[in-house]
Amino acid sequence: MRTTLIFGASGQLGQCLAHVAQERGTSGLVFLSEAQGNILDTEGLAALFAQHRPAYAINCAAYTAVDKAEDEVELARKINRDGVENLARLCGDYGTVLIQISTDFVFAGNGNLPLLETDATEPISVYGLTKLEGEQVIAAHTDRFFILRTSWLYSEYANNFVKTMLKFGREREELRVIWDQVGTPTYAIDLAGCILTIIETQNQQFGLYHYSNEGLTSWYDFAVAIFELGGLPTRTVAIRTAEYPTKATRPMYSVMDKTKAKAQLGVAIPHWQASLRTCMERLAAAQ
Ligand SMILES: NC(=O)C1=CN([C@@H]2O[C@H](COP(=O)(O)OP(=O)(O)OC[C@H]3O[C@@H](n4cnc5c(N)ncnc54)[C@H](OP(=O)(O)O)[C@@H]3O)[C@@H](O)[C@H]2O)C=CC1
Ligand SMILES: Cc1cn([C@H]2C[C@H](O)[C@@H](COP(=O)(O)OP(=O)(O)O[C@H]3O[C@@H](C)C(=O)[C@@H](O)[C@H]3O)O2)c(=O)[nH]c1=O
Predict the structure, then answer these.
(1) Rounded to whole angstroms, how far apart are CA atoms 7 and 11?
(2) Which residues form the RmlD-like substrate binding domain (predicted)?
(3) Atom of ligand 2 nearest to the CA of 128
(4) Among this protein's residues, is 127 annotated catalytic?
(5) In testing the pocket of ligand 1, which one of 6, 13, 40, 66 has its CB within 8 Å of the most ligand atoms?
(6) What is the CATH number of the domain that holds 140?
(7) For residue 84, which of 147, 128, 29, 32 has the smallest C-alpha distance?
(8) What per-residue string of b and e applies to 35-48 under the rule 16 or more CB within 10 Å gives b?
(9) 234 touches ligand 2 (CB under 6 Å)
(10) Ligand nearest to the CA of 148
């Protein structure tokens, strides 16, 4: 059996892939932490590909600190663009299918209709720009790739908005949260399931896809839902983006249209409220 290499396996999505693979009994997955598979180490990567001759490489590795990226442009670009190119080159050489994860932050976010894969990109942050550059370097090396753009990832693993809200909610009586940025939260466990389905079904419909949960919300409404499900009495105050200054600018509207993913990847996508409930139940059970 040919293997699947998973880069960035210690991050949030990497841990969700391990969780879902264990649930499904998926075999042949090789989980690589940054120390075991640094996507900037071309010699190390070449050795891994020579050893495993993988059928798939899933790239969960990324520079994801959105605000910090504004000051660390070179490092963000190295990881989010050059690292992806290193993988794509080897995938081309070995006939490996590359599964790359990208973001809603490739869009400017000044529209008000769900974004299609064919819509124009216009990143407004260093993180968004370098992730887009990472998308763009792939096709020169291989046409056997899936790029999955996702948004607002959360889960019981690593750091994310849900866990931050639960922590702040326990510590503070009141929280001020932006209500004029609209998007769709995505349970990283659902995304991990989609990725494993692509592999298990040996899907050959390569290309660019949007994948988030269904529905839309604001960060404020998302926070309110988290506090309600978590049984926290925290008062949530809706504020405008201008009242919460951050180094990086974020899209005001980044809801993505998933019609293509549902038609071609064979996945049913849960609504964000249903998936949030599942995640909150698992977090509560783990306490
Ligand atoms: N989190 C989110 O809300 C969203 C994420 N995405 C995308 O989804 C993907 C997964 O994100 P997520 O799991 O949340 O991110 P995390 O930040 O949790 O995980 C990223 C992992 O990549 C590792 N990494 C960094 N540099 C390298 C390197 N040179 N070689 C190998 N590994 C490296 C990090 O290690 P270390 O911690 O040691 O630096 C970390 O474990 C990313 O592509 C991200 O851009 C898209 C939309 C939303
Ligand atoms: C903690 C906090 C955040 N916010 C706002 C700031 C921001 O607009 C929004 C989310 O903040 P965060 O810093 O948690 O999330 P952020 O890092 O902006 O999340 C993004 O990460 C990258 C990796 C992606 O690819 C995106 O899809 C998106 O998930 O919530 C508040 O309004 N009040 C608060 O107390």
Answers:
(1) 9
(2) 4-283
(3) 25
(4) yes
(5) 13
(6) 3.40.50.720
(7) 147
(8) eebbbeeeebbeeb
(9) no
(10) 1
Asked whether the beta carbons of 144 and 96 are under 8 A apart, the reply is yes
- What's the pLDDT score for residue 71? 98
pLDDT at site 1: 63
Residue 103: inside a domain? yes
Say how many Å lie between the CA of residue 69 and the centre of ligand 2.
14
Q: Is 220 inside any structural domain?
A: no
Classify residue 231 by burial, with Cβ atoms within 10 Å: 0-12, 13-18, 19+: exposed
* Number of domains present in the structure of the chain: 1
pLDDT along the chain (287 residues), means of 10: 93 98 97 98 98 98 98 98 98 98 98 98 98 98 98 98 97 97 98 98 98 98 98 97 98 98 97 98 93
Give the Å distance between the CA of 223 and the centre of ligand 1: 23
**Token duo for residue 47:** 């050795």
Question: pTM value?
Answer: 0.98
Q: Which residue lies with its CA nearest to atom 12 of ligand 2? A: 161
Q: Whose CA is nearest to atom 1 of ligand 1?
A: 153
Of 56, 63, 94, 127, the catalytic one is: 127
Integer angstrom CA distances of residue 174 from 117, 238, 251: 38, 11, 25
Task: Of 38, 83, 87, 79, give the one whose Cα is nearest residue 58.
Answer: 87
Instruction: State the residue range of the domain holding 133.
Output: 4-160+185-213+255-270
Quick check: CB of 38 below 6 Å from ligand 2? no
What is the predicted pLDDT for the residue at 2? 83
Does the CB atom of residue 13 touch ligand 1 within 6 A?
yes
Instruction: Quote ipTM for the complex.
Output: 0.99
Ligand 1, pocket-test mutation among 5, 58, 153, most atoms within 8 A of CB: 153
Cβ atoms of 69 and 123 closer than 8 Å: no
Q: Does 142 reside within a domain?
A: yes
